[in-house]
Amino acid sequence: MTITHPTHDPTVLAAGCVLWRRSSTTGLEICLVHRPKYDDWSHPKGKLKRNEDALQCALREVREETGHEAAPGARLPTTHYVANGQPKRVDYWAAEATTGTFVPNDEVDHILWLSPTAAATRLTQPRDRELLAALLQSLHTT
What we know:
Structural class: alpha+beta
CATH class: Alpha Beta
Largest sheet: 7 strands, mixed
CATH topology: Nucleoside Triphosphate Pyrophosphohydrolase
Helix content: 25-40%
Radius of gyration: 16 Å
């Protein structure tokens, strides 16, 4: 007789958005968040809560980290990496900022609205630059 035990998937599930807005001067601006805990610049993202779907999480994280509401757009690539020794999967969407105002908090102390070129230079992780490229491609094909 073989006894099987359910396996616990150790993958941390998260979601986020590449947040953008239209600009009269640069045409398009990308929102980057600075997380003092990691001293990095990235796209808004965070862990899924119990019974929360990935898109709900992504939009909640945008609201919590940037103070902005957002209209979701195209699905962007999912990233996979190891964080704090655990595998992590982050689902992403393009999202256009609608309303809101940033207020610094413990998790995010600054945001920047940058041109795509400046955003690509400022992003800390190469995977975030790949997401930016995917956003730009999705905006040019819709």
